[in-house]
C-alpha cells in the first residue's frame, strides 16, 4: 500500500507550507455514503463563501451608516469559522464514515449542532453580531436601500446554509442510529483511546498475520442509498 501524502488544503507550490490533511472520498469513504460526505464538504465551502459575502455586506452596512463593530466581527467570523468548520465538524464526520468511529460521530453531532444554531442566529440578523441577516437588512431599508439590498444576499445565503445543515444533521443521525451506533460506543472509544487515530477500513482488513484468514472488521449496517430525507 502506497504511503498517503497529505493533500488538503491544496496550497500553491510557492507557499512554504505543506497540506495538513489527507482527503480522498473515493478511497476512504464507503461508496454508499460518498455523496453525503461530499455534500457536507460542499456545504462547508458554501458557508465559507457566505461568510465572505457577509463581510462585504457588513462593509456596505458600515459605509451607509451602520456600526463598524459589525464589520470587525464579520472579519473575525470569516477568519475563525472557515478553518474551524473544516477541522471541528467536517473532519469528524469524514473520519466517522471512514472508520465507523462513534466518537467522531458524537463530536460531529455536538459541534455541527452548535454551528446550526449559530447559523440560524446569523440568518435572523440580530444587531451587533456581525451578520447581515433578515432583521438587519429589512430594518436598514429606511436608511439606505442600496446597502439593504446588498445585506439581503448574505441573509438568503445564511438561511440556505441553515436549512442544508439541518438536513445533513438529520441524515447523518438517521444513518448512525440505523447502523447501531450509540453513546456507549463513543464512551468505549474514549476509554480505549482509539478515537485519536481510528484505522481506516483498508487498514482494518489488512490487519492480520499467519496462515489464518483475516478477521474482517464490523461494518455498520447503514441503510443503503444516498438519498436525502
TrEMBL record:
Residues 182-229 are annotated as: Disordered. GO terms for biological process: protein transport. It comes from Podarcis muralis (Wall lizard). Keywords: Membrane, Phosphoprotein, Protein transport, Transmembrane, Transmembrane helix, Transport. The lineage of its organism: Eukaryota, Metazoa, Chordata, Craniata, Vertebrata. It is a multi-pass membrane protein. Belongs to the SCAMP family. It is found in: Membrane. Its main location: membrane. The keyword Ion transport does not apply. This is Secretory carrier-associated membrane protein.
Amino acid at each position: 500500500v502506497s504511503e498517503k501524502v497529505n493533500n488538503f488544503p491544496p496550497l500553491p507550490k510557492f507557499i512554504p507550507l505543506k497540506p495538513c490533511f489527507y482527503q480522498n472520498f473515493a478511497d476512504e469513504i464507503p461508496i454508499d455514503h460518498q455523496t453525503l460526505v461530499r455534500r457536507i464538504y460542499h456545504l462547508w465551502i458554501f458557508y465559507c463563501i457566505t461568510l465572505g459575502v457577509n463581510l462585504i455586506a457588513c462593509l456596505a452596512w458600515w459605509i451607509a451608516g451602520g456600526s463598524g463593530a459589525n464589520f470587525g466581527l464579520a472579519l473575525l467570523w470569516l477568519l475563525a469559522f472557515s478553518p474551524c468548520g473544516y477541522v471541528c465538524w467536517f473532519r469528524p464526520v469524514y473520519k466517522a464514515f471512514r472508520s465507523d468511529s462513534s466518537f467522531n460521530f458524537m463530536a460531529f453531532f455536538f459541534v455541527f449542532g452548535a454551528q446550526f444554531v449559530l447559523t440560524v442566529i446569523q440568518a435572523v440578523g440580530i444587531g451587533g453580531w456581525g451578520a447581515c441577516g433578515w432583521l438587519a437588512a429589512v430594518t436598514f431599508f429606511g436608511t439606505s436601500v442600496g446597502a439593504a439590498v446588498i445585506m439581503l444576499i448574505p441573509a438568503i445565503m445564511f438561511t440556505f446554509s441553515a436549512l442544508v445543515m439541518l438536513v445533513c444533521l438529520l441524515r447523518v443521525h438517521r444513518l448512525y442510529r440505523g447502523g447501531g451506533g450509540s453513546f456507549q460506543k463513543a464512551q468505549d472509544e474514549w476509554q480505549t483511546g482509539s478515537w485519536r487515530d481510528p484505522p481506516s477500513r483498508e487498514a482494518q482488513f489488512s490487519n492480520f498475520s499467519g496462515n489464518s484468514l483475516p478477521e474482517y472488521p464490523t461494518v455498520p449496517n447503514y441503510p443503503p442509498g444516498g438519498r436525502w430525507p
